[in-house]
Amino acid sequence: MASEKNGVSRGIAGISAVVLIALAAGCATFKPHFFKDKSEPLVEYTLQGDAAEKILVIPVDGMITNHDEFSLFSEKPGMVENVVAQLRMAERDNRIKAILLTVNSPGGLTTASEILHYEISSFKAKTGKPIVVSMLDMATSGAYMISLPADVITAHPTTVTGSVGVIFMRPDVSELMGKIGVGMDVTKSGPNKDMGSPFRRATPEERKTMKGIIDKLNAQFVALVQQSRNLSTDALKTVATARVFLADEALKLGLIDKICHIDGALAECRRLAKLPSNARVVAYRRTHYNNDNVYNSSSSQFEGAPASLIDPGVFKLLGSATSGFHSIWPVAIGVR
Question: Which positions are annotated as active-site residues?
């Protein structure tokens, strides 16, 4: 028995040594095969139903970005890449008759949100397949923007949505640098080259310039809302304040069409596409899950990977607050 334990210990030590040597040697391509990531193909899995006609569930979960995320051995595709890959697969499958977007996001980068809005709109124009949105915890700012192309927008009774607007965020470490006696020596080609730098305070002129950019981006966002939702003048003024709303308020304003749970959203898919009650509900995953269902958002996570060896929570929080123009409800940064 002792020899068996010693053998197991030596085996584990050997594996650990190989991993550490590979990492120390800078083997960027080293990756144990048992970690599933974006290099694995998306595969269709049935969640419910047995008819030939299908409803595809696409989860939009977390920050909207086009940047990949990494764990120790896995690589997660960015939101834009992940959603577009699924839309492309759905275009080629004539048996997929409708799309259900389950949206659970505070928003994200302004450009990434605009790209997804464009891609979802283009998919709808190319295929004619109806799209229904089911909002979960929150669908604010950029997450509301990408919901606009849907034929029907539904929300749960407790959903928070709205926050229609744009914000420019940057860290300001100028006072900290002064306290620790560190400065930043800058040689620049023009007076505005380092505008937005975290190493100094913005000038009044720079703030005015940034506000002008934000106002233009925001006007584009509000125009998209009005184009898709045709709000009353008073409702549009309220929405343009960039505040958030609970589902009942959003319904009165015209931001959403219906308050229901996800089964109600699936019923809307069946109604719009004229599907039978036993229409198959499917999802694209990179791994199999026992007892899978429509609330599983794992097509956008590190699928099949065990818990991370290092808790990335604080780093995700800091990464979420990177400088730039965001269509996001900032209170929610770091929550997802």
Answer: 141, 193
